[in-house]
């Protein structure tokens, strides 16, 4: 079992989860600042105001990456640091641009390849207030295009760009479940095909168009001279039939992935939404104009894959209920025969199952004709980790096993199944602000002591990563 000699590995983070310094150097508020201020939205009542203080500790974070042996680092830009009000006619904040440009210079100086995510959920708040943010196709996609162009121009040394992180979460968590900013809930009972019932699907559509516009700008104006690559990052869980004998459950396994991944990947690779979504959602799902198809189809230089867990899938009959965004099915931790998908973690939705990772890599590769894949996130929380004293939290054997098993499953998919994975970024470099879960849920390979000035302590899993990849990556031929 082995990985190619040019394989990149490292760690991932996101701006709002680690930076803090939310009102420093001219940064404008994002929808997450606003959302966190609403009582009851974040489990521990916290916010990203301090987070890991990474905005002020870029040198320290880079030193840590270097110490751990990372070859690459994925981070996101806070849009409202570089254009505080967000829009194409709003002022640019040079201090924000300089910050990220310097950061990229410093990473490269340390021999670490940067992967930049342009949008990891923290939309400038002004755009939400001004025109409804992600819901407004014309305005949002034009403003995103403008922001993307500014970043491509300002940071020419970055060669790996990710337009959007997990649009599924923006659309469903932000506009259906209401658990993420801006906290809308779609209500199908009130208006079966009305605006509120359509919101998640409109947001998904607008993100695809904005992605397509940014990719066009990159390919036409920057790629010829800069020579980099650009893609989108999608999330999706692996699926197993609840009843392995039941064809309806087997079919529902595909449907579940289609409603998560193919919602975005089918338009990008084939030019339209999956038939299963059209069938179930009807006119709630927007349609692509010809011009939009031209923008979106073929717009990935690589596939960014965020992956954490697996579920057993049980089909449902009849009219889909409120959570029809799953594809009219149930997701379960136990199958018909009482087999358990994996052990509990601190995250209710996450149960380790490394074989699922290999299966999903194969599913994606077959459906989309073996695209180049970067695994842009993979990792786990640990049940009760926040209750442990520091010394015990550093011995995170559960996380070590998770990474070992998942990375080996990936290497098997590469070596034995012909899947084209070229990089892997563990989530996350640091314990950080886990969105609606606040700080109780920790995903870092590095412990952050929030009570003692955000001091960083690498856990066992942090130190395991280099030997793990060294044992798998082929030595370059000389
Ligand atoms: C994501 C999220 C991360 C989460 C991680 C763990 O892209 O899924 O960006 O921000 O912290 O997924 O839940």
TrEMBL record:
The keyword Hydrolase applies. GO terms for biological process: cellulose catabolic process. Plays an important role in cellulose degradation. Shows hydrolytic activity against several glycosidic compounds. Its EC number is 3.2.1.21. It comes from the Eukaryota. The keyword Protein biosynthesis does not apply. It catalyses: Hydrolysis of terminal, non-reducing beta-D-glucosyl residues with release of beta-D-glucose. Keywords: Glycosidase, Hydrolase. It comes from Chaetomium thermophilum (strain DSM 1495 / CBS 144.50 / IMI 039719). Belongs to the glycosyl hydrolase 1 family. InterPro entries: GH, GH_1_N_CS, Glyco_hydro_1. GO terms for molecular function: cellobiose glucosidase activity. This is beta-glucosidase. The lineage of its organism: Eukaryota, Fungi, Dikarya, Ascomycota, Pezizomycotina. It is an enzyme of class 3 (hydrolase).
């Amino acid at each position: 079992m082995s990985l190619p000699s040019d394989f990149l590995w490292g760690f991932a983070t996101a701006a709002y989860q680690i930076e803090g310094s939310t009102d420093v150097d001219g940064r404008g508020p994002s929808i997450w600042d606003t959302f966190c201020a609403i009582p009851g939205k974040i489990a521990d009542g916290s916010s990203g105001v301090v987070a890991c203080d990474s905005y002020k500790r870029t040198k320290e974070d880079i030193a840590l990456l270097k110490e751990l042996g990372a070859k690459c680092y994925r981070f996101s830009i806070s849009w409202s640091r570089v254009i505080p009000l967000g829009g194409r006619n709003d002022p640019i904040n040079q201090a924000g641009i300089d910050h990220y440009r310097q950061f990229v210079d410093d990473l490269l100086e340390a021999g670490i390849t940067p992967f930049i995510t342009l949008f990891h959920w923290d939309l400038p708040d002004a755009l939400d207030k001004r025109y409804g943010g992600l819901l407004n196709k014309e305005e949002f996609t034009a403003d995103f295009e403008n922001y993307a162009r500014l970043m491509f121009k300002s940071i020419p040394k970055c060669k790996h760009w990710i337009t959007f992180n997990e649009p599924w979460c923006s659309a469903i968590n932000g506009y259906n479940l209401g658990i993420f900013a801006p906290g809308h809930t779609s209500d199908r009972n009130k208006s079966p095909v009305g605006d509120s019932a359509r919101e998640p699907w409109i947001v998904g559509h607008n993100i695809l168009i904005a992605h397509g516009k940014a990719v066009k700008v990159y390919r036409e104006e920057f790629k010829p001279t800069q020579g980099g690559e650009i893609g989108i990052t999608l999330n999706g869980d692996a699926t197993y039939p609840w009843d392995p004998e039941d064809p309806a459950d087997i079919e529902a396994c595909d449907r579940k992935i289609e409603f998560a991944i193919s919602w975005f990947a089918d338009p990008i690779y084939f030019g339209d939404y999956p038939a299963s979504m059209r069938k179930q959602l009807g006119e709630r799902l927007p349609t692509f104009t010809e011009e939009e198809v031209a923008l979106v189809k073929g717009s990935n230089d690589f596939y960014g894959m965020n992956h954490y867990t697996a579920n057993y899938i049980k089909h449902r009959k009849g009219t889909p209920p409120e959570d029809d965004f799953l594809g009219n099915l149930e997701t379960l931790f136990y199958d018909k025969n009482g087999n358990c998908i994996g052990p509990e973690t601190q995250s209710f939705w996450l149960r380790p199952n490394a074989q699922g990772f290999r299966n999903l890599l194969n599913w994606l590769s077959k459906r989309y004709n073996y695209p180049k894949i970067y695994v842009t996130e993979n990792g786990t929380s640990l049940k009760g980790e926040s209750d442990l004293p520091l010394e015990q939290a550093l011995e995170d054997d559960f996380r070590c096993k998770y990474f070992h098993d998942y990375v080996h499953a990936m290497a098997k998919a590469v070596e034995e199944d012909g899947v084209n994975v070229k990089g892997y970024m563990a989530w996350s470099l640091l314990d950080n602000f886990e969105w609606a879960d606040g700080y109780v849920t920790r995903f870092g390979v590095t412990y952050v002591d929030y009570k003692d000035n955000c001091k960083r302590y690498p856990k066992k899993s942090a130190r395991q990563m280099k030997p793990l990849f060294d044992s798998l990556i082929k030595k370059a031929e000389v």
